């Protein structure tokens, strides 16, 4: 555990010293703080966020954990997350619907415990299984990601310093560490910096460090359906369209998430809210699977998230300075892949520390 006297003294000076500084207190940043502080309780860790805990994409995430991955690495990460969260979330029945020509693809991408069953075209109450399609039945889970991030932050506060409402104005490499210039006039001097900014990857303060990774930011849209879900209603995954219907029991309505193709947007630009085009895109999916729900689409949520070129989360040292590590660009899956991202980030930080020790021994 971090020495309390050291924490207080550091917080009262213009320069805050830390072993590791994490920029971003979304779900990924909070999970990294948890993982690192558990593995290395001797480290002094600081988390800095210009907003509040879980206040970015984490605040708007549907929090659905679908047991799948488009690559072997993402499937491993998804399975790790399932074990990590076991027994802590709301578990739901799940129906995955895809055209029968995609059967082998679906079987490859979904984790082994997702069973399968071919059905005839039938009406199954809330949604239809169209002709030529196959339904898989299994389980998924969901949680309130915003509340979860706050829970993790509350848990780690005894061993991690968290500075909310504090902007980072600059990331400056020095010979003996990395200096973060803060909007408060203070600075953080850290041996390592983890950038976990969510969709704020284009912020000029750190573009030098992460531009080579080719990250893009996309507008994300989900519709709220003004219909109360019944106990036992399944989540429906429309695999062909990369969309899903989620019964949000805690909020008392359904959510339709679908793929948007509006790229290179700024998370700081004032949002327009839902547009007629957003509604039309959602309605096209509902027309195929649940036309009776179209009239219930009266509201929704619009936000941004970061995506990597190969659709795998990024955990990498910056080519500009290996002491700066980027963690994120999880392609809309920051929550469900967050535990694995945190573990990989901690592995990388420990490897970097080991490399430093080796250099000192051979110098």
UniProtKB/TrEMBL annotation:
<feature type="domain" description="FAD dependent oxidoreductase">
    <location>
        <begin position="19"/>
        <end position="348"/>
    </location>
</feature>
<dbReference type="GO" id="GO:0016491">
    <property type="term" value="F:oxidoreductase activity"/>
</dbReference>
<keyword id="KW-0560">Oxidoreductase</keyword>
<dbReference type="GO" id="GO:0005737">
    <property type="term" value="C:cytoplasm"/>
</dbReference>
<dbReference type="InterPro" id="IPR036188">
    <property type="entry name" value="FAD/NAD-bd_sf"/>
</dbReference>
<dbReference type="Pfam" id="PF01266">
    <property type="entry name" value="DAO"/>
</dbReference>
<dbReference type="InterPro" id="IPR006076">
    <property type="entry name" value="FAD-dep_OxRdtase"/>
</dbReference>
<protein>
    <submittedName>
        <fullName>FAD-binding oxidoreductase</fullName>
    </submittedName>
</protein>
